[in-house]
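Subject: for your reference before the review

Hello V.,

The reviewers asked for a structural picture of the protein, and I figured it would be easier to keep everything in one thread rather than splitting it across files. Below is the amino acid sequence we used in the manuscript, unchanged from the supplementary table.
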Amino acid sequence: MSKVSVFDQEWIDLVFEGRNKSYGAYQLRQQDSKTTLLALVTGIALMGAVVCIPMLFNSNDQAIVTTNDDGGIVIHELILPDEPIVLPKENTPPPAETQPEASAPAPSLTPTVRLQTLVATSGPVELEIPNMTDLENANPGPTTSPGNSNGNPLSNAGAGMPEGTDTDGTGTTPGNQTYIAVDEAPAFPGGINEFRKMIGDKFRTPDLEMATVIKIHVSFVVERDGTITNIKVTNKPGHGLDKEALRVLQSIKTKWKPGKIKGQSVRTAYNLPISVKLN
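And here is what came back from the structure prediction:
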């Protein structure tokens, strides 16, 4: 029994001795070699189809084959674009160029007259030079004209304004323009510190619980006669200090020395900060 091969028919008969050989396992054992061969052939056919079909579809492609350092093959696929099909050109003559028809000139809206071409002559041109007798009763000019004996002589004088009474001035009298930069700044009699002292004496401060210093920015215009007008508070100090500053400045009637430009008194804008210390 040790000499019996497991692949021989004797081994199959020995295993199924005394058993129902019409059972499926016996039939499978009998057809094992045929089934194995069929499976091998089918597998080889499928593998060949998998390899050959892409090669058939890509038969127009090119590939670059190189070897690496280990001796293996490396395939670099190079897919070329399809080249367009160029049809041969027929020997047809080029189309003849058609010249555009010249259009007739548009008719003129006004009548025209043909001008004669001026031809230069080689002869000298004689000019009649006037003498002193001709200039006794005439003025020299670019052309000779008879003049209008019945006309009025030319005059550069205008009719003027019949109701006007003013005379010409020198143009240096200043108007009502307000200036910021002047040749001479406006000055208060006794100096600016005297003006501040006058404000401090008249200023009534409110009672606050905490001590603080509040700044009030005032602006006004020093007129040409020295009075101050257009008094404004340009910030918001609060606590009613803006109204108090307006009251104090409006109560000061002392006139300033006005600002001047080229010796003329002008309206001058003036800015003055006022610091109020509250206890």
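For the response letter, the relevant points are probably these. Residues 71-81, 113-118, 159-169 have pLDDT under 50 and may be disordered. Strands lie at 62-67, 73-78, 178-179, 212-222, 228-233, 259-261, 264-278.

Happy to draft the paragraph if you're swamped.

O.
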